[in-house]
Amino acid sequence: MTTKHEQIIQHIISLSVGSKISVRQIAKDLNVSDGTAYRAIKEAENQGIVSTIERVGTIRIERKKKENFDRLTFAEVVNIIDGQVLGGHDGLYKTLSKFVIGAMQLEAMMRYTQADSLLIVGNRIKAHELALNAGAAVLITGGFDTEDYIKKLADDKEMPIISTSYDTFTVAAMINRAIYDQLIKKEIIFVGDIATPFEESHYLRSKDTIEAWYKLNSLSSHTRFPVVDDKLQVIGMVSSKDIVGKDRSIVIDRVMSKKPQVVLSKTSLASVAHTMVWEGIELVPVVDQSYQLQGVVSRQDVLKAMQQIQRQPQVGETIDDIVSRNLETSEDDENIFESMVIPQMTNQLGTLSNGVFITLITEASSRLLKKVKKADVTIENITVYYSKPVQIDSKLTIKPQLLDVGRLYAKIDVEVYNERNLVGKGLIMAQLINR
């Protein structure tokens, strides 16, 4: 039986794209409290099926596909530039294909203005009209208004016309930055991206017997299963060590481990990898906010995803990406690494940033462990116990040395040199993720 929360989400999904949504109306239509309606609408916003816009309200939007994260809806543009919607509210859910800066003659401007694009322009009424007739949205900079007949045209064409107090350059920079941020977010893998969905997951109910565990074990070859109650909420885990030597007629809730480790679908891959290594577990249930089972993620799922990330080209580049790309293996010794201190790696004083120093020794240690142990790594603890300022354009030599290594852990001492001068030392404790 579905919960009220799920019923509201399904109701919102069933609404046509562009529909307005309010807490009061949802509460009235589905006979739920305002609080329940509000929480469900917020969850729908997290799922990307509604968007809340100041002075407009909450509207149903089309859920984005992952490959379209580099696109923005006009509703998102309104939020980014603190805009005011003058007309064409019904088109806010549509996706922006590109934007055009209207700092040119009308005829030239219209050659670049296509359907589903966004024309960024000042107080040029004719340009507003021509863009809307071409199927494009309009963003008016400088806080200007437009004529009433233009607003009506926007309503008829279902393409938004938006006003913002920012200038054209600032608006273009803000939209560019938003798209760039989306590209970086696109590369972050969450548990929900790799988990086995609920429909394909194996689980046990609290009143099942141990015999049911053996049936699932033979069916799936797994040895660890989540246990759910009548509401499909995760209440325990059962593994082979819990049932070994016990009578097969014993009920599961008498042998299961209670208060199991669970993760949300929005938990990052790095976080769940650390959890699985730290807790020494092979499989983790994926739940929603109410602890209802959404799927499972295994150690194999995590390993495959981590290996896939390493093969993927970077689109949105972070500081860690820059540092990693700038770190090269020494020609003299494949266990020693070198890096130039480029401007992006420095602080406001022009010397090597502390955060970049940690990233350098971490990356060098991870590469060494992958070479020696053929395993993926999650860093447990970093101690920097010696550090000197390093100026820009310096060449660093990073020398990680294994002090102790086991099946699941490693201790690495790292020395960093500028030419032949010692400029930093660190100690790293790492957990290994083996197949």
UniProtKB/TrEMBL annotation:
Query: Which residue ranges traverse the bilayer?
Result: none
Arranged from A to Z, the UniProt key words for this protein are: CBS domain
Q: What CDD domains does its record include? A: CBS_pair_DRTGG_assoc, hot_dog
| All copies of domain CBS, residue ranges | 256-314
Record bears the keyword Cell division = no
Kindly indicate whether the keyword Membrane belongs to this entry: no
Q: Return the InterPro entries for the record.
A: CBS_dom, CBS_dom_sf, Diverse_CBS-Domain, DRTGG, HotDog_dom_sf, Ser_kin/Pase_Hpr-like_N_sf, Thioestr_dom, WH-like_DNA-bd_sf
Q: PROSITE patterns per the record?
A: CBS (PS51371)
Q: What is this protein called?
A: Transcriptional regulator
Species in which this protein is naturally found? Oceanobacillus polygoni
